[in-house]
Amino acid sequence: MRAALICKDKPGSLQIRLDTRAAHLAHIRQSGIVEMAGPFLTETGEMCGSLVILEVETMDQARDWAARDPYALAGLFESVQVTEWKKVVG
């Protein structure tokens, strides 16, 4: 199954994102369950959140991945929504 993580950054937290980006990308590579991922952008092009699509066996696995994400551990996110997602196109 696929799970979508929709993460919104806390206001004014771009430096936290920049400081933990390398660890976040390593977490993505090491886990082996990320199908696609990328940042949300403001109208001025500043990163302000994340969309991560995981291929998992259970939703608990997706929630665990999200909880161990270095961005989450650093307190970057104002909110994190984890929901099952069905790929239809692409």
Quick recap:
With 90 residues, the protein is α+β, with helices and mostly antiparallel strands. It is built from 3 helices and 4 strands; from the N terminus they run βαββααβ.
Tell me the CATH architecture.
2-Layer Sandwich
Q: Kindly, what is the distance between the CA atoms of the first and last residues, rounded to a whole number of angstroms?
A: 16 Å
Strand content: 35-45%
State the helical fraction: 25-40%
Shape: globular
Keywords:
90 residues, alpha+beta, four-stranded antiparallel sheet, 3 helices, globular
Could you explain the architecture of this structure?
The protein has 90 residues and is α+β, with helices and mostly antiparallel strands. It has a single domain, classed as 2-Layer Sandwich (Alpha-Beta Plaits). It contains 3 helices and 4 strands. It has a 4-stranded antiparallel β-sheet with strand order 2-3-1-4, with helices on one face. A hairpin with a 5-residue loop joins β2 (34-41) and β3. The protein starts with a strand and ends in a 5-residue tail after the last strand. The mean pLDDT is 97.
